[in-house]
Amino acid sequence: MPERTTPPFRADQVGSLIRPAALVEARRAAEAGSLPPEELRRIQEQAIREVVRMQEDIGLRSITDGEYNRTWWQRDFLLKLDNVTQAPSRIAVRFHTAEGVTERSPASLTVTGRLARPRPIFVDDFAFLKSVAKETPKVTVPSPTVLHFRGGRQAVDAKAYPDIAEFYADLAAVYRAEIADLAAAGCRYLQIDEVNLAYLCDPSLREHVKARGDDPDTLPMTYAGMINAAMADIPADMTITMHLCRGNFRSTFVASGGYEPVAEILFNTIKVHGYFMEYDSERAGGFEPLRFLPKGKTVVLGLVTSKTGQLESRDTILRRIEEAAKFAPLDQLALSPQCGFASTEEGNTLAEEEQWAKLRMIVGIADEVWG
Asked: Distance between CA atoms of 258 and 44, rounded to whole angstroms?
């Protein structure tokens, strides 16, 4: 099969990478006031230069900054909007591991007034990444649905937004502005990190949504409309993908359930060009929902887990790709880890070298399968 010249690539990645210890220590020192901000920036930029070279050296064509400038995958973006603050979550979240279940209520976000974007958010970070990457620089942003899902209608100020449709419209508008500035800076590969459509495939989380007064059957279409509005003005040569995630915090996960409840909307209503889909365990269900994939779109199969350091069997990955190809053409498939390796600065519970071993394996298998 021909090599891809535009993203998503046959061997791709979700985005975040384990932070080196020196960077984590520098951030903590800066937060404590013992390291000047300009010194933290210097340390971050040097770490990004090094991690970019490592990605390119192993053969990746999709290059990220590892989210080294962030502490959390979503808060570093959404808290920079006017009138967005942290608040206790209205949903009790059960974090699952092989050892058991821990129930937590991570901080949610509250909208206290009309939304606005006072200045570009990730544009400077992208500009630096672009300046040091030889291959295609990729930027990740949290889905706009994150600002609604955990708190629901109660987390959006009723005086500012008596009609919730106005909230969705304003949220899409601030995303359009950020995406326009990223595009003007040269970004042509953007990924939306979407957890809530996957959460709405989990029966227990659907019940939580019902209990707080939202309808889990209509939310996917509402969210689809907002996401489409957010990226309505992208340049013709810009690729936008969506990562579907069931939770990723220090190797735990939140949701289970196959993609069937949202598959048709996901593939045929949301106007992204590709999908990074978790398929590293049985909690993701089968490949049958891929039958809805239309021509011209790509699914990047997340068959390699980012949650443990154990390297998957090459033969198992090859067999799983063959299984997926029964429901979607092989030419419309690609391979990646199931999620990022460090959605927060703590990272998942594996070593940096184990992370690189998995990425090297993905590059090798993709070369073998797609050429």
From this structure: 38
Three-state SS annotation for 51-85: HHHHHHHCCCCEECCCCCCCCECCHHHHCCCEEEE
CA distances from 91 to 72, 87, 112, 121, 191 (A): 19, 12, 19, 28, 26
Spatial CB neighbours of 181, under 8 Å, sequence gap ≥ 6: 120, 123
Burial class (CB in 10 A: 0-12, 13-18, 19+), 9: buried
Burial of 45 (0-12, 13-18, 19+ CB in 10 A): middle
Give domain limits for the chain.
21-370
Q: What angle do CA 311, 313, 319 make, to 5 degrees?
A: 140
Instruction: Work out the number of other CB atoms within 10 angstroms of the CB of residue 213.
Output: 9
Query: In whole angstroms, what separates CA 312 from the centre of its chain?
Result: 22
For 56-74, write each residue's pLDDT tens digit: 999 999 999 999 999 887 8
The DSSP H or E segment spanning 362 is helix 352-370
Which helix or strand (DSSP H or E) is residue 184 part of? helix 164-184
How confident is the model over 89-140, as pLDDT tens digits?
A: 655 555 545 555 556 566 789 999 999 999 999 999 999 999 999 999 999 9
Are 271 and 242 within 8 A, CB to CB?
no
- The CATH architecture one would assign to domain 21-370 is Alpha-Beta Barrel (3.20)
Quote the pTM value: 0.91
Contact 338/317 with Cβ under 8 angstroms?
A: no
